Fold these 2 entries.
Entry 1:
Amino acid sequence: MIWNPNKECMSRDEMHALQSKRLQKLVTYVYHNVPFYRNKMQAMDISPDDIRSIDDIVKLPFTTKQDLRDNYPYGLQAAPASEIVRVHASSGTTGNPTIVGYTRKDLSVWSEVMARCLTAFGVTREDTFSVAYGYGLFTGGLGAHYGVENLGATVIPTSTGNTEKHIRLIRDLKISGIACTPSYALYLAETLEKMGLSKEDIGLRIGAFGAEPWTENMRKEIEERLGLKGFNIYGLSEIMGPGVSYECQEQNGSHINEDHFYPEIINPDTLEQLPRGTQGELVFTTLTKEGMPLLRYRTKDLCTLMEGECACGRTSVRMGRIMGRSDDMLIIRGINVFPSQVESVILEMPEFEPQYMLVVDRAGNLDTLQVQVEVRRDFFSDDIGSMLAMKKRLADKLKSVLSISADVKLMEPGSIERSQGKGKHVIDNRKLK
Amino acid sequence: MTIKQVSVFLENKTGRINEVTKTLSQHGINMQAFSMAETPDFGILRLIVSDVDKAVEILRSADFAVMLTDVILLHCPNKAGALGEILEQLAVADVAIEYMYAFAEGDMANIVVRPTDIARCEQALVGLEA
């Protein structure tokens, strides 16, 4: 099913024209309402008149997370305070939080794009849908919530927290869909099993998973243990929140709602725009946003963009799986390491729980990487030799995937902290020194 | 005599063994023998307890990774050379030992043996166990 075929299946020419028109309007709007952008554009000697089509976007300045922090709290807001009806904020673990104000129209666009995503996943008015993203300043909870309501399904605003109660609700209210982080989906599966229940006791059919990078192996694991089909939903609070892009039933990349969010891939070093199919940093321009519109916002997410009509009938550009946020990328002994690579290896090995932690440190002048992983109860052996062999099997696989050696530490099942929101997979002690 | 030994997988972390013994004592389970095999990051705690089934149930519900292993429990006099005799007998019968632990109390010593081949070990020890 397609929620809005007019937009989701638009011809490429029509999309180009629509994006061009919207970009011109956006640039004029920010030029006159956001001093930050006006100053930047004047310094680059460009004016709104220089933007005649979407292809002129390369002339425009970039926006970074640092710009948002420097202009805390409302410096990048374009709409007057009287028009702002809601504010969300990012977690801000490393500085000022990012404050994003939404106008009434922004919220209506958000619930529109969320309804497109949910429809692509197969959610209908008949479904009862649990939103288990955190409700609050984080965009996940409320963003998904209004999307489900807009679509007309029944929304259960579970948020995070009491997982056993959540499972009882899933069973008793016949909840068929859930939105949460992949980390939380795993925790849900674990709790289900601990309660002596199985996927047959509940009727989950659809999972909308996002807010953190996850791997294909993680998808298989969650699908197997919860008995549902898992779909990727992508978004970021600076741009809107969840709903920027979504997988369809084909699951061959995530369709971008590009009538609202224009994507580019750039080389993060030279800032040059890269052709479709090339991997680089994903950049978004909010074509229709009123509250806090952003020009060429650098997401730090690394992926590729794909063109071409999808078998589902949608014509929009698709983005490949996020390789990792460039912020998540660790440089260990000069080698780039993504936690997702480690995840992929661990989830292929039945001996281990799908939980892990990378601990990076420095001994003398040498970086060290320890991978902590939990041994599954059924694979624990009284024989030290076979436990050490298990450890070596993982170390060998990690070495071949990462190209650097990691010290594997076998942990007791349940000992690595579970996350109800975004999973935490890295402790980098090098930064503290 | 072949008995069940309780093996517990433990992270090498201060206080972790204490948590196992505390859990058992809270449920009135007495430990008769106890050994720890260790590596730098994890260890395997091996226990001979009064009530095996109950111990396993309690430890599992406290989220420990637990398994049962067949071992042979022997008694011999607490005097020089007694253990040597037994080991001699096992060596002659070509019984390989993965690990063992022993402790003496009063006139007697108790020995827990984990052979690679339980049946072969039992065979080799016929006559000794009186």
Note: The first helix of chain A runs from residue 5 to 8.
Entry 2:
Amino acid sequence: MMAFLTLLARNRLAMAGGIVLSLVILLVLLTPILPLADPDVTDTGNRFKPPFSEGALLGTDHLGRDLLSRLLWGTQLSLAVGFSAAIIAATLGAAIGIIAGFYGGRTDNIIMRGVDMLMAFPYILLALAIVAALGPGLFNALIAVAAVNVPFFARNIRGITVGIAHKEFVDAARLAGMSNARIILTEVLPNVIPVIIIAMSTTIGWMILETAGLSFLGLGSQPPQADLGSMLGEARSALITNPHTSIVPGVMILIIVMSINLLGDGVRDALDPRLKSGALSRPMAATMVKREAPAPTSEGKGLLEAQELQTQFHVKDRVYRAAGGVSLHVEKGECLGIIGESGSGKSVTALSVMGLVASPPGVITGGAVRYEGKDLIGVPYKQLRDMRGRNVAYIFQDPLATLHPLYRVGDQLIEAIRSHRPIGKEEGRAKAIELLEAVRIPNAAKRITDYPHEMSGGMRQRVGIAMALANDPDVIIADEPTTALDVTVQAQILALLDDLRKSRGLAIVFITHDFGVVAQLCDRVAVMYAGRIVEEGQTADILDNPRHPYTARLMACVPELGEGKRRLEAIPGLPPVVDKLPAGCAFADRCDKVQDACRQGDIPLERNGARAVRCLFPETPLKEAAE
Amino acid sequence: MSDALTLDNLSKTFPVGKSLFGAATASVKAVHPITLSVRKNETLGIVGESGCGKSTLARMLVGLLPPSTGSIQIEGAALNNADPADFGKRIQYVFQDPISSLNPRKTIRQIMEAPLKQLHGMVKPERDKRIAEIFASVNLREEFLERYPHEFSGGQAQRIGIARALAAKARILILDEPVSALDVSVQAQVLNLLADLKKEFDLTYLFISHDLAVVEAVSDRIAVLYFGSVVELGPAEVVFANPRHPYTKLLADSAPVVGRPLTAPEAKGTELPNPLDPPPGCAFAARCPHATDQCRTQIPVLEDTESGTQVACFYPLADT
Amino acid sequence: MTGYILKRLLSAIPVLFGITIIVFLIMALIPGDPATAILGSFATPENVEKLNRDLGLDKSLVQQYFIWLGNMLTGDFGTSFALNRPVIDEVLERFNATLVLAGTAFVLCSLFGVAAGVISAANQYGWADKGITFVVLLGISIPSFFLGMMMILFFAVNLRWFPVSGMWPIYGDRDFGALISHLTLPAIALAVVATGVIARLARSAMLEVLRQDFIRTARAKGVDERGVIWRHALKAAMVSIIPVLGIQAGFVLSGAVYIEIVFQWPGVGRMLVDAILKRDILLVQGGVVFVAACYVLFNIAVDVAQSLLDPRIKT
């Protein structure tokens, strides 16, 4: 609750809306004790007095009634009716929605059919029909406005409830012996209430508009009593001669509804958990670059080279050092594996190469990425775009999410080519078929018109690979390309990648958490932990003889097929969060060989030939093994 | 050793599609009739790829899904059509996604108290004592009880999920991919904890996973599921070391193993049969290098082999 | 595709039934006696009874419903007592005028709403975004009837750019130019609110889509930013925008009631309000059923458009 209020208070627009609304409400509450003229007493002698006249601050209307007094009393009425309608509609709608969404099946079907039926009316028709039946009057208008809004709430809340009712914690509650009624009250409702509040706060303004509208039509409040809508309605005939009688109530409605909308948006933003982390900001075309130091000079290593690459996530006042100075290179035709757990910075490193880290919040803060010796960090977007897919291509993890769901796979392949060179329709088609054949998709000519959802996971990932191959790149960066796939499919995809590398002389950077995969595919491997490389070397060398305690223990704790039932050598503790990295070795807290020196100051990555390790007390010393 | 859990002809068919009047237009057999028993204090591993029906099976076993045919017996007593609460005292479930299995708006204490209150009707001091005991067993600090789920890492949340399952005092736990959402270095912690708890509380496990190596490392026996049917069942040390069903062999050959060269173990397609139009014979026939006409027309049933495993194949692979 | 359209049309039948039942039931709730309303309070009991018989009001509710429904299916919506004219003739004539107004407003709000939303999202937190967000906020907060009145005051009375009201000039040719000059103000006033709602939704739908993995894929293969926004993101965002366009069409139709009154537009909304105030029940019933039925058909068109866009919808 406190967190909600602080979040709300931080939103300046919402605060402004809140303050204005509070002022209006305060004024309205004070209306009965303010020294105002009677709002309903007519005085035809003093009709249409302009604003700021003696005794009538806002002037008088066509019957000589004091506009200020009528305005305040009318505002009171409009607010009361709007809020009541919102509360009635939200309560009824939410109850209906929760019941339909939670029970599902036939209950849901019948209820939602009814809701659909009501939503088949343009809402005003229903409201007019209800008022026609009940007769004009403010209370009837309230009923009509509440009634037409019930289906909107019901549908909205039902959707949310269906999502929650299928969550695993509801199953768990059932297994804990809870009854349906108890599950609705204690498991579902607390999760739905924020949505109800959001829906209410964003629709109250609209309901005030609707009630004002019915009154404007003469179907709401009846004379002499007036709400803001009927004041406007009565003033309409004098619009041209005495516009102030229209402008006064109209502006008041605008002020009220606008302040409610501002506040409502603030409430929504503060309650919507997705917005809490600032997640709803749009990633820019390329990762932001704020290099604090000049780029390191080129060492001319490899085709693609990262030097002391630093990528951070800036979320509010926190700084997550996702990649904390990573140096890597890959030669032509070589496969480099990057292995690490989630949060180790392996994906961020790979995505930084072509500026694909989502930004905000990602920022590249240091180092260099060199392609054929030329630094790519901070180059103009046009140049970077030109290299994406043509020099360095990517394959991503989940092939269903990474292909556009609404375009045919053939068109997505052709677009990849067309982004770099013009290509005719026929040639494009032929090239797309050729690409699909290259990744061994059977019936390629037929499959190019498939949509991604019509393919199996393995086939989709083949399309992903074909897309990466479209412009004959020199480097392919594969970010956990087989993690979402079944083992039998994974084996085929890995074999395919290996063949392509050999036949096309591709350099592959392969990111994974699986030692078995690394062992089968990669020439060299770099092990990452907490945003830094802790060990690097030839694959066989590292697997046979891990130097860093983390590498050794990680390999030991992963069960491998063929070793039978056994107790695993677990690593205690958790990887550190990269916004609060300890001084010294990030693995120190989990390491059984830790000494005081490990926690003091930066530990360099010590190199000896192809082998490198970032440890003061490695399993076997670097020098010794090299001899 | 007596049986903790017996499934007799258990199957599940889902209606799919909807005609204009809301009637189903077709049905999908997610789980074909399975007859199986789990011995007391055993860990039975169930392994299979996506779409093999392992999660459907698990949900039936804890009563979250009513079976279409067959029955479930727990320690000799039939448990069909009982309400989940009745299941809850005998058999509990540990979910795959540890975070989403905890209600984000409840404290850990409230989550832990639910089974104690609802299933066992314990009063407050009794509950506190029991929660303290369980938390000690799963190596969680008691100060965690007043926090909310989002404050925990995946590994910690999974310990809480396990603690909740233990609170129900069930002697059988269904572990549905309990470590696949966790980081590799945390997986081992949870797997070891499960092994310790099994000893401490005399538990029986049904361990469901897609990870062959993990299943092999924790199970006494392993059942291999393909397209809703058990195709091979046997002692853990034998099933993958000496596969008799061609599908088991395919799985074993596909698993990446350090030191084994990279070869695609299968040239034929990897597509599963269409569940709306299942093949008349063995579901694996279309992918099987040894398939004959018999395989394509008749459905093989589980039969004993000399190596101690049971296999559903007309032409089981030779003993190696 | 034809099959899908047929299926959707068939599924509309129960909805249309439901609409007639709802309208009939609401009207049956009306207290008092229509005959008395028609004949006035000084009518003799004999006359009232005779009129009741003529109107079929002596039969049971179910019978009355089916008689009414049967008549409607043959195109007979009854006769408006206030206008002394067949309801269907009046409704058709009025609905034409509404269609011109609401149709124009709908096209305006769809185009400007979506464009504003996309531009806003593409320049998130930039000046364009802030400006659009402010205008949109203003648009969804102002009552359309007040906006209409202010537009009359400013553009018609002060600047004399457009006529004050009506659909056609009282004297002079009823040509296209005259229609446009009469249509401009009401169509804009009517479109403003819906434009705001659509722009807001389009903005958040775009922001949602721009975070998806397939956008990163498009960038990774070298698609330029314009292609990313207008080809990849907008197409995916349209999946959630199109249903809202359907809902907003209902709001435009609803808002037309106010605008027709403010601008003296001879549409069906003004007709309904007049009919309600005069308790002309048959005209209200007929008008509501007719407009609701058209809206149901329009929503089927929206569903069809959605299925053309999204291949994942089973057709």
Note: The longest strand of chain C covers residues 79-80.
